[in-house]
């Protein structure tokens, strides 16, 4: 598995009772909100495996919801997430799902944002509050929320990767990791880049204007 | 993949504490100064102290009512001079219960490495602090040793009960606490490895079987017994007792055992104590 640091092991500072089922769940909700890129107003939370079986006792349902509302794992309002969601106009329902051979603590979000953005996100809480987002819509990804992350939806065409990395280089943004995947040759493709520096709005706007780029989003670390 | 042995060899060759080697590694990895890392770790220590204090003096109960007040019972018993095992061990037991109870009551804790195992490390280190009159600086350094071992545990095995059972949570916490205790008590880098290996070996195969799926029964009390295993392992290592199986191989074993463990015994509340007649009755009553 990926490299960890000392504060992944001692930390987070959090409200109990479970780092994987409470703190990790808050972070998964928060990450889904960041990927959506706007305030969610409607959604379904699908619980898999241990999240489905023991989630209630750990407050996993409330924790995921608290994350969608933008709370952090040490927020002492987490137990009140249901009430706060109602007040803030976020309506969610919960369902149990079998996602197959994934981590036992896995959740799928189906979210609608306030301007109508519709997105599906699958993520797992892999222990100690560490999370990994494994899928956005139909694309396999590996986003951990440790670095600023750039997600670019584009057409599979020669030179697209080069123009994206050139733009980042010009903006003095260093790439820590990079992954490109496509559905099939010449079709839609997805680029995921983790960077050392924050990707600001101006860079993102320039990125969106590049040819063959369909969508670009910058996800802040959690 | 990281190996704890590499750090032991590096520390030995440089004549440094194990924590200093890990600190250097993390300064490079996180691109942060020693001061920043110290300050961040000090925040963890402060929250640990706070959760010990809150748990020892508090009368909080978990929502289910299953957990709360036991730390105070042990603390009162020992303060009356009634301890069977001596003030150090009884103090560690009380502190571990205190932090684990605060966690179950949705209070603020430091996951170490997880929330379910948050009581072991603060209990052990604050007990060694009392015995050795340690400085805050040395306790913070010992936390780096604990976390360094934790990194190896994460990379070679797991610290998630859902993935590896309780051996991955309380077991990892006990190994981390044992290594940190040895360093804080003045032991060598090699002795931290032996202590961690001895502690982890004592925890192999421990299942994660929370009654009702709550981090309460048996989790809270396993924090207390985990702390005593860590102290026993540290005592042996500090006396020069070696672990026949090296730490990295013990960690690999824990990972393998975790994979072999059936899903029912990995935090799903489908096996172990969770499915005893009493466990089922508790679940039916409270959930």
From TrEMBL, chain A:
<dbReference type="InterPro" id="IPR051318">
    <property type="entry name" value="Fe-S_L-Ser"/>
</dbReference>
<comment type="similarity">
    <text>Belongs to the iron-sulfur dependent L-serine dehydratase family.</text>
</comment>
<dbReference type="InterPro" id="IPR005131">
    <property type="entry name" value="Ser_deHydtase_bsu"/>
</dbReference>
<dbReference type="InterPro" id="IPR029009">
    <property type="entry name" value="ASB_dom_sf"/>
</dbReference>
<keyword id="KW-0479">Metal-binding</keyword>
<dbReference type="GO" id="GO:0046872">
    <property type="term" value="F:metal ion binding"/>
</dbReference>
<comment type="pathway">
    <text>Carbohydrate biosynthesis; gluconeogenesis.</text>
</comment>
<keyword id="KW-0408">Iron</keyword>
<keyword id="KW-0004">4Fe-4S</keyword>
<dbReference type="InterPro" id="IPR045865">
    <property type="entry name" value="ACT-like_dom_sf"/>
</dbReference>
<keyword id="KW-0312">Gluconeogenesis</keyword>
<feature type="domain" description="ACT">
    <location>
        <begin position="149"/>
        <end position="222"/>
    </location>
</feature>
<keyword id="KW-0411">Iron-sulfur</keyword>
<protein>
    <recommendedName>
        <fullName>L-serine deaminase</fullName>
    </recommendedName>
</protein>
<dbReference type="Pfam" id="PF03315">
    <property type="entry name" value="SDH_beta"/>
</dbReference>
<dbReference type="Pfam" id="PF01842">
    <property type="entry name" value="ACT"/>
</dbReference>
<dbReference type="GO" id="GO:0006094">
    <property type="term" value="P:gluconeogenesis"/>
</dbReference>
<dbReference type="GO" id="GO:0003941">
    <property type="term" value="F:L-serine ammonia-lyase activity"/>
</dbReference>
<keyword id="KW-0456">Lyase</keyword>
<dbReference type="InterPro" id="IPR004643">
    <property type="entry name" value="Fe-S_L-Ser_bsu"/>
</dbReference>
<dbReference type="GO" id="GO:0051539">
    <property type="term" value="F:4 iron, 4 sulfur cluster binding"/>
</dbReference>
<dbReference type="InterPro" id="IPR002912">
    <property type="entry name" value="ACT_dom"/>
</dbReference>
From TrEMBL, chain B:
<feature type="domain" description="Serine dehydratase-like alpha subunit">
    <location>
        <begin position="14"/>
        <end position="274"/>
    </location>
</feature>
<dbReference type="InterPro" id="IPR005130">
    <property type="entry name" value="Ser_deHydtase-like_asu"/>
</dbReference>
<keyword id="KW-0312">Gluconeogenesis</keyword>
<keyword id="KW-0004">4Fe-4S</keyword>
<keyword id="KW-0408">Iron</keyword>
<comment type="similarity">
    <text>Belongs to the iron-sulfur dependent L-serine dehydratase family.</text>
</comment>
<dbReference type="Pfam" id="PF03313">
    <property type="entry name" value="SDH_alpha"/>
</dbReference>
<comment type="pathway">
    <text>Carbohydrate biosynthesis; gluconeogenesis.</text>
</comment>
<dbReference type="GO" id="GO:0003941">
    <property type="term" value="F:L-serine ammonia-lyase activity"/>
</dbReference>
<dbReference type="InterPro" id="IPR004642">
    <property type="entry name" value="Ser_deHydtase_asu"/>
</dbReference>
<keyword id="KW-0411">Iron-sulfur</keyword>
<keyword id="KW-0456">Lyase</keyword>
<dbReference type="GO" id="GO:0046872">
    <property type="term" value="F:metal ion binding"/>
</dbReference>
<dbReference type="GO" id="GO:0006094">
    <property type="term" value="P:gluconeogenesis"/>
</dbReference>
<dbReference type="InterPro" id="IPR051318">
    <property type="entry name" value="Fe-S_L-Ser"/>
</dbReference>
<protein>
    <recommendedName>
        <fullName>L-serine dehydratase</fullName>
        <ecNumber>4.3.1.17</ecNumber>
    </recommendedName>
</protein>
<dbReference type="GO" id="GO:0051539">
    <property type="term" value="F:4 iron, 4 sulfur cluster binding"/>
</dbReference>
<keyword id="KW-0479">Metal-binding</keyword>
């Amino acid at each position: 598995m990926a490299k960890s640091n000392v504060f992944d092991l001692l930390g987070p500072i959090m409200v109990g009772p479970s780092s994987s089922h409470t703190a990790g769940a808050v972070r998964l909700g928060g990450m889904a909100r960041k990927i959506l890129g706007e305030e969610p107003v409607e959604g379904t939370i699908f619980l898999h495996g241990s999240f489905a079986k023991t989630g209630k006792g750990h407050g996993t349902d409330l924790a995921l919801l608290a994350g969608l509302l933008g709370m952090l794992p040490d927020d002492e309002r987490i137990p009140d997430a249901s009430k706060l969601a109602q007040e803030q106009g976020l309506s969610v329902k919960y369902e149990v799902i079998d996602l197959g051979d994934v981590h036992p603590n896995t959740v799928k979000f189906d979210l609608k944002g306030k301007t109508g953005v519709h997105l599906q996100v699958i993520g797992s809480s892999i222990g100690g509050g560490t999370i990994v987002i494994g899928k956005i819509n139909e694309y396999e990804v590996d986003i951990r929320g440790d670095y600023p992350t750039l997600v670019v939806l584009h057409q599979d065409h020669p030179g697209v990767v080069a123009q994206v990395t050139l733009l980042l280089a010009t903006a003095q943004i260093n790439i820590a990791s990079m992954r490109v995947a496509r559905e099939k040759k010449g079709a839609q493709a997805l680029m995921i880049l983790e960077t050392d520096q924050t990707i600001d709005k101006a860079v993102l706007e320039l990125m969106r204007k590049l040819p063959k780029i369909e969508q670009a989003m910058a996800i802040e670390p959690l | 993949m990281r190996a704890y042995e590499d750090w032991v060899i590096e520390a030995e060759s440089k004549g440094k504490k194990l924590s200093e080697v890990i600190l250097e590694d993390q300064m490079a990895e996180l691109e942060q100064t020693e001061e920043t890392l110290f300050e961040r770790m000090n925040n963890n220590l402060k929250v640990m102290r706070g959760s010990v204090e809150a748990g020892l003096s508090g009368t909080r109960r978990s929502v289910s009512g299953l957990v709360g007040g036991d730390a105070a019972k042990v603390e009162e018993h020992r303060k009356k001079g009634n301890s069977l095992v001596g003030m150090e061990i009884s103090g560690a037991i009380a502190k571990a219960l205190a932090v684990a109870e605060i966690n179950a009551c949705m209070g603020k804790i430091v996951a170490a490495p997880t929330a379910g195992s948050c009581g072991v490390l603060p209990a052990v280190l604050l007990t060694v602090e009392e015995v050795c009159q340690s400085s805050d600086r040395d306790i913070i350094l010992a936390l780096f040793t604990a976390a360094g071992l934790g990194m190896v545990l994460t990379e070679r095995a797991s610290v998630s009960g859902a993935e590896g059972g309780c051996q991955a949570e309380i077991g990892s916490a006990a190994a981390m606490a044992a290594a940190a205790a040895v360093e804080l008590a003045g032991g060598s880098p090699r002795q931290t490895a032996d202590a961690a290996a001895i502690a982890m070996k004592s925890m192999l195969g421990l299942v994660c079987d929370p009654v009702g799926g709550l981090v309460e029964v048996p989790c809270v009390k396993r924090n207390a017994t985990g702390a005593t295993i860590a102290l026993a392992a540290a005592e042996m290592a500090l006396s020069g007792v070696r672990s026949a199986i090296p730490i990295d191989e013990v960690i690999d074993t824990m990972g393998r055992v975790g994979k072999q463990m059936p899903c029912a015994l990995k935090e799903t509340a489908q096996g172990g104590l969770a499915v005893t007649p009493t466990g089922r009755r508790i679940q039916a009553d409270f959930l």
